[in-house]
Specification:
CATH superfamily: Amidase signature (AS) domain
InterPro entries: Amidase, Amidase_CS, Amidase_dom, AS_sf
Largest sheet: 8 strands, mixed
Protein name: Indoleacetamide hydrolase
Structural class: alpha+beta
Organism: Methylobacterium currus
Function: Hydrolyzes indole-3-acetamide (IAM) into indole-3-acetic acid (IAA).
GO molecular function, one term: hydrolase activity
Number of domains: 1
Number of helices: 15
Order of helices and strands: HHHEHEHEEEHEHEEHEHEHHHHEEEHEEH
Strand content: 5-15%
CATH architecture: Alpha-Beta Complex
CATH class: Alpha Beta
Length: 480
């Protein structure tokens, strides 16, 4: 059996294979990860609602018996997994980071969570989020703040912040997340891991309403491309309860082969013609990442889309207020519950109440025009590139940055505007690690691909990983 430290550092694909081959037991894997959680989670607070270790070890032993008797249940057989705390988990507390749901234990799983269980994963608990997933800083009044894997004095990102930090510190082999305003991309960038926002319908998100357009999607996070593809292959796939679900067989995502980078055409949007402010050093690191592509034969060309970026932002604001405000309004209507909601949640509802159906339609028309603009750019480029965040991880005690490089931020999420063009395009977007700044804080690069081309993003990421070795960079707590 490999040492416990080796079990937590193994790739998820290798670890799952070792369990299937019975080279290591699921119980040993569970114990190794529980030890890692005990070692690091008290510092960073990434995993919450952790189940009792004795119960988890018993479930791992049952997985070993099941494997011996019946073979693997699925590709994640015996792997410990913590689910983002916005997603319903049967029998495990799901708080959404809100005092309103502090003691809520769902009776059923979210659709993608059910797929994790069916694939053989053992759910150990949840990963921390901002309250209701609002904002890119995972802090809430139920569990407190999640701290960065590379510097615990800094924020871990969000809303999939607990997922990214737990993944980076090897407390879990894989991590699921969701993304509306960069919630897979920002924490991935800030913790030197991969985050993939799939196209709408790639991972069915069964909700109470399935016909109106949505901006949020569920997707995978991982430390390497093979693991990212493995989790996407489990999450994705058709489901008749979701009318826009994609019917393509997701099995092909599981082992993404690297593509030849020579000839790859990358359109570098950068700061969108000066519209987006950046903390010094962000653009430099992203351009260094692009140089790694160029060194291997890719053509990187600056491009300024013929579209007003402020119009994209304003349309997103309206659609977000419509979607988010509507979902939270049932709580807002009760004054006692409203008093327990964070100001940003109250703001979303109250702004949403001012909207008309015509406002929403006009915003959707703008979104459509932006999609058509992006589609036209893909006639010249294979992917479009933007930084994955506008600032490096900030102090964990802050709520959100009020200024970037001297420019004031007018909302709680304006500082993450750089992710909005990807969200509004509806296209798949990946965040790739591009290295650390002189303070040792990570940053990431977004690549946007044509609609439904997640496989292309995985192939590009696999080649970039081979060229740069970003997966070998460790947080300081794991070095030595």
């Amino acid at each position: 059996m490999p040492p416990s430290s080796d079990l937590v550092t193994m790739r998820a694909t290798d670890l799952a294979r070792a369990i299937r081959d019975r080279a290591v037991s699921a119980r040993e894997v569970m114990q190794a990860h529980l030890d890692q959680i005990a070692r690091h989670n008290p510092v960073v607070n990434a995993i919450v609602s952790l189940r009792e270790p004795d119960l988890l070890l018993a479930e791992a032993e049952a997985a070993d018996r099941d494997l011996a008797a019946n073979g693997p249940r699925g590709p994640l057989h015996g792997l410990p997994h913590a689910v983002k705390d916005l997603s319903a988990t049967a029998g495990i507390r799901t708080t959404q980071g809100s005092p309103l749901f502090r003691d809520t234990v769902p009776a059923t799983d979210a659709l993608h969570v059910a797929r994790l269980r069916e694939a053989g994963a053992i759910l150990i608990g949840k990963t921390n989020v901002p309250e209701f997933g609002l904002g890119s800083h995972s802090t809430n009044p139920v569990f407190g703040v999640t701290r960065n894997a590379y510097d615990p004095a800094k924020a871990g990102g969000g809303s999939s912040g607990g997922a990214a930090v737990a993944l980076a510190l090897r407390m879990v082999p894989l991590a699921d997340g969701s993304d509306h305003g960069g919630s897979l991309r920002n924490p991935a960038a800030w913790n030197n891991v991969l985050g993939l926002r799939p196209a709408a319908g790639r991972v069915p998100g069964h909700t109470d309403e399935v016909f109106l357009p949505q901006l949020g999607v569920v997707g995978p996070m991982a430390r390497c491309t093979a693991d990212l593809g493995l989790l996407l292959s489990v999450q994705a796939g058709y489901d008749p309860r979701t009318p826009n679900a994609i019917r393509q067989d997701p099995a092909g995502f599981a082992a993404p082969p690297p593509r030849e980078l020579k000839g790859l055409r990358i359109g570098w949007i950068g700061d969108f013609g000066g519209h987006l402010p950046f903390e010094p050093g962000v653009l430099d690191l992203c351009e260094a990442g692009l140089q790694a592509f160029a060194t291997h034969g890719a053509a990187v060309e600056p491009v300024l889309p013929a579209f007003d970026p402020e119009a994209i932002w304003r349309a997103w604001i309206i659609l977000r207020q419509w979607i988010t405000g509507a979902s939270l309004s049932v709580h807002w209507r009760d004054p006692a519950k409203r008093a327990l909601m964070k100001p940003d949640a109250v703001w979303e509802v109250e702004q949403g109440q001012r909207l008309s159906a015509f406002d929403v339609h006009a915003a959707s028309v703008t979104r459509t025009a932006w999609y058509q603009c992006v589609r036209g750019l893909f006639e010249r480029f294979d992917v479009l590139a933007l930084p994955a965040a506008q600032v490096f991880p900030f102090e964990a005690g802050e709520t959100w940055p009020r200024r970037i490089n001297g420019r004031a931020m007018d909302t709680y999420h304006r500082w993450m505007e750089v992710v909005v063009p990807g969200t509004m395009s509806g296209c798949p977007v990946i965040s790739l690690p591009v290295g650390l700044n002189p303070a040792g804080l990570p940053m990431g690069l977004q690549l946007i691909a044509p609609n439904h081309q997640e496989a292309d993003l995985l192939a590009i990421a696999a080649a970039y990983e081979a060229a740069t070795g970003f997966d070998r960079t460790l947080p300081p707590a794991l070095r030595g």
